[in-house]
Amino acid sequence: MKINRIAVLLTGSMAWMWCAQAETADSLRNEKIQSIDEVVVTGSREVADLRRLPVSVSVIGRERLAESYRPSLLPTLTERVPGLFITGRGVMGYGVSTGSAGSMTMRGVGSSPTTGMLVLIDGHPQYMGLMGHPIADAYRSNLADKVEVVRGPASMIYGSNAMGGVVNIVTRKMHEDAVKTDLQAGYGSYNTLQTELTNRIRAGRFTSVVAGSYDRSDGHRKDMDFEQYGGSARLGYEFSEAWNLAANVQLTHFNAQNPGTVSAPLFDNISHITRGVASAILSNHYDKGSGSLSFFYNWGRHKINDGYSAGQQPLDYRFNSRDRMLGVSWFQNYAFFHGNRITFGFDYQHFGGKAWNRYLNGDPDRVTADKSMDEVAGYVDFRQNLTAWFTLDAGVRIDHHSHAGTEWVPQAGVSFQLPTDAQIKLSASKGFRFPTIREMYMFPPQNPDLRPERLWNYEISFAQRLFGGRLSYGANIFFIDGENLIQTVRVDGRPKNVNTGRIENAGLELQVAWRISPVWSVDVNYSYLHMEYPVLAAPRNKLFVGADFTKGRWSASTGVQYVKGLYISLSPVTEEESFVLWNLSGRVRATRWLSVYVRGENLLAQRYEINAGFPMPKATFIGGVELNF
Fold first, then answer.
1. Are 519 and 478 in contact (CB under 8 A)?
2. Which of 137, 196, 291, 356 could form a disulfide with 365 if both were Cys (CB 3.0 to 4.6 A apart)?
3. Full DSSP string of 427-457
């Protein structure tokens, strides 16, 4: 079946739902309905009504992540969040360095490696201290209670790297007094094994969530092995109804092998990566205000054999690095009068590390970089309900980088609540990112005189709920204008990083969610992106059509994703890819404590690439069991 024919059938069958862009991407089963007064924390650092925020936020709930039976939460985000695309290269694992995947773009902003999209865990930034990008294999589904995705710049609240958007992983909690343990184990194509064990406790004011996992796969190509194991723990204590303390630690290690492209294979390109996260948060919640003081520390240890090509000799060294990021974040908001909320915040980060080549013959190490940098910022955000139907929001951030200078970051928006359970939002927001240590000081294109990248995002959106919330739909239209993007060009015959790039993107995001009955629900999202200057991993068209079924002991979820005009290479020649993926998962509860599940992906057996030269696997399957006690 040809891709174009499938696309026509899908588009025609859903044409009656042409205006679709609800504020969440979760499905609409009874327990999953995101009400119009759904609250989120990512758009403003406080628990806030989506209707009153100037930004667009998508929410993926715990049940949606669990029913996908995927170790990584990133493929589910790609399907369910319009405008977001995340690259992949195989059955399991994204890897790092040469041939890695896991690059993220939102509305064509993000780049590869991803330095224009910010990943957070409980509001704390997550990226490699030297390279400045997130490590995709560190973000597992069993970590998350939910994921909140800000579609568009969030630099006013979160600073550098949030110029394209934010993915905030809200870690799991236990919400009722009980002790629950979940064990999941699955096996499938290419000798793929998935296992995870989670224990959750709530006893009065004390809560804990402890999880561990082990996954491995041979991969669908020779020399594409992947292995990962890790664990996490979250402890919390409520001192009173207003004050609580939480501590969180996560550790993961993975071994990834990269076979190179089909036309230029690599040998012995193996990475051994260890990543860790620790944080402590003291928070308060009062009727007139809320806030938190948090400390966080992220670290990494990388050991990489960059491999060699056919006809070459194996490398006589191994790349090594240690990186870190530590910081403190504080915010407090207060309602000084009716309908008012003012938030004051402060952020400090210290990040960097050391990279070196260790020679196998005993020669002295050659240091590639040994740098640290600091970033300090303050911000204020003002939100006022001028009437019952009109809200104004405006804020500004001043952010100082120890090497790249100071940046002012304003944001403003208004929202109108219409009498028919509908809303209209208009916003203008600035996004930026400071250059990374890699771009300024590592490898031949380095340039210590780089300046921050900047862009402006202008957006208007409409959303409405009908039939008591059973049907929701809406649309976003946006325009992005950016400058000073960092590019590698030849200067005096040598490659050099310079601020010469531009971005001009415009697009449309649509979504519909319809709970047909207590048994059936469907949801659709679509995004169109026009790029004046092409960007890797940013498709022009992305459509997802999903359906969910639940009755008694049986449940099933299926979805078809259509991607067209995906740039997989820009140099030396521009290459585009288009494909259709059909995925299906199902579960039957055999007893009160035992369930059996199965998942199939790419059931149409499409031949396609997301990273140029890395063909993706055709149909794959995995089946397993869940124990709940």
1. no
2. 356
3. EEEEEEEPPPHHHHHSSTT--TT---EEEEE
Query: 461: helix, coil or strand?
Result: strand
Taking residue 187's Cβ as centre, other Cβ atoms within 10 Å add up to 13
Closest to 25 in 3D by CA, of 63, 66, 69, 77: 77
Tens of pLDDT, residue by residue over 138-171, are 999 999 999 999 999 999 999 999 999 999 999 9
DSSP tag of 315: P
Q: What is the pLDDT, as a whole number, of residue 111?
A: 76
Cα(124)–Cα(298) distance, rounded to whole angstroms?
9
φ, ψ at 443 (rounded to 5°): 70, 160
Q: Which regions of the chain are under pLDDT 70?
A: 1-52
Q: How far is CA 324 from CA 131, 244, 371, 535, in A?
A: 11, 27, 11, 29
Element spanning 78, H or E: helix 74-80
Length of the chain: 629
What pLDDT shows up at residue 591? 95
Cα radius of gyration (the chain):
24
pLDDT digits (tens, 9 = 90+) for 36-58: 346 666 666 666 666 667 788 99
The pLDDT, as a whole number, for residue 338 is 87
What is the residue type of 172?
R
